[in-house]
Amino acid sequence: MKKLALGVDIGGTSIKLGIFDAETLIFKWEIATIKEKGFEGVLLDISESIKEKLKDLNYTLEDVKGIGMGVPGPVLSDGFVKVCVNLNWKDVYPAKTLSKIMNELPVFISNDANLAALGEAWQGGAKGHENSILITLGTGVGGGVVVNGKLITGSHGLAGEIGHIKVKENMRSSCNCGAFGCLEQLASATGIVNSAKEFLKDTEINSKLRTYDVFSAKDVIDLAKANDELAVKTIEYTSEYLGIAIANLSLIINPSVFVIGGGVSRAGQYLVDIIEKYYIKNSPISEDRAKVVLASLGNDAGIYGGAKLVLS
Amino acid sequence: MKKLALGVDIGGTSIKLGIFDAETLIFKWEIATIKEKGFEGVLLDISESIKEKLKDLNYTLEDVKGIGMGVPGPVLSDGFVKVCVNLNWKDVYPAKTLSKIMNELPVFISNDANLAALGEAWQGGAKGHENSILITLGTGVGGGVVVNGKLITGSHGLAGEIGHIKVKENMRSSCNCGAFGCLEQLASATGIVNSAKEFLKDTEINSKLRTYDVFSAKDVIDLAKANDELAVKTIEYTSEYLGIAIANLSLIINPSVFVIGGGVSRAGQYLVDIIEKYYIKNSPISEDRAKVVLASLGNDAGIYGGAKLVLS
What we know:
Two copies of one chain form a homodimer. The first copy, chain A, has nine helices and twelve strands. By secondary structure, chain A is of the alpha/beta class. In chain A, helix 3 packs across helix 9 (about 300-310) and helix 6 (about 215-225) packs across helix 7. The two termini of chain A are about 20 Å apart. Chains A and B meet through helix 7 of A and helix 7 of B.
């Protein structure tokens, strides 16, 4: 009986893989992304690694219902991927190709950030919620939107690009995308550091940060928790824009939960509480607000999402 | 054979009704909303009017597959309506009640603005598009989101409340909802008049508007089309915020078309072109942009959406 679902999360440096028996992750592992092997070469590596691991666990491909795969780029509804910058892929159909390599095994595909949202919706922070939005605060800001238990991918695979919604007017510097005032410019790890630097430059507020040569978003958060005045101001500033973004997303999608993930979310409940304060401030229209919670699957969210794609 | 679908759009002063034979609207009419009759009284009026009209057209209830109904308030997924301010309804199940009155005929229900979005997606400006967003610019700003041909309603029936997404920082006055900087404050007919008044007060720019005692959004648009400097400035200002809203919605839902409806949209292609200019300016991330088009069903959008609810 075919009962296994495989999740594969392809990143620029490593590929995460997981074998699920119904809802249970029974084994997970990682392999290197050897981009130099080219598009088919990377997929062949995935295929070989899966076959090997199944054998180790006394399974065969016959036991596998399908594979759900995440790639770092927009995916059209027919599985077409125009470009994955980090993988040097252009104009490819990764799911169709992997399926062909693997004896026509069903392969499903989605954008990696969207897939993480599906994983968190299935067994993570949004478990039990039909409508949820994941916001990942890392080097950049990404996310995904789940409605009625399914991912929204959009007409050009660009749905859930939460990092680039405009939340601030009159932003002096531009975002990597070319726009001004993107959420990513404020709420990413880089954004937090940049905001702190501006407050250091533009104000006289006391701060231990003035004694640092370089500092990270984690440093700012740790100091904010210890009541460093400028660090607190920075985190409040960041969280206000996150609160505005969440309030706006509430009015468009109206989910019952927002899940905060990514490296910055290691700040924990401290950060969630401040974000929630500004979400409430910016959404007086209804008291039926969504919950704000922390992501719980960490780097495994993508492989969970992959398995869910197979099982849906 | 049951082949008819009925659309019913309940407003504060009138109720629009339509009979559809498959995709064709074969008859439409209107009755007054006599709120004083109370919740069941209004539904009885609808039931009586439908039966009468079917008889006139030589049909019976046996020919009807179902009714799709729009109400001016949030609708939960189980059909519960907590409040319709304009109808004095509280804690009701309009679809269940109408179905009971009408011999268990299937009745579907949605928020009226969402229903109009579904109507435009089915046979209006977004026809042929799987993913679309309607933005209605009237006394207020409303809308609805259609994904994969179906309405997004959200966990509390609040999805598509596009008028209350925050697009402007440092707005001096507050919106009816209590927030500051809502799209409705800028892009509604009222918003356009208010913006023009502020420019009249805060600038020395020449304008025929300075000779008007009172003026409407239509006056501002007409003067802008005739190159009145302050009127042009007002419409550019309004459209910039609409462009930002559309750019943000694109990144969340990624539809292939935006439909602009409501009274203000009578400004026509002139307005669409300016909105599109600011949409492009604010979405450098991808050239795969949605089209911006005018709504085409006018006040019938709701009954079209109602019929589509039945036929989906």
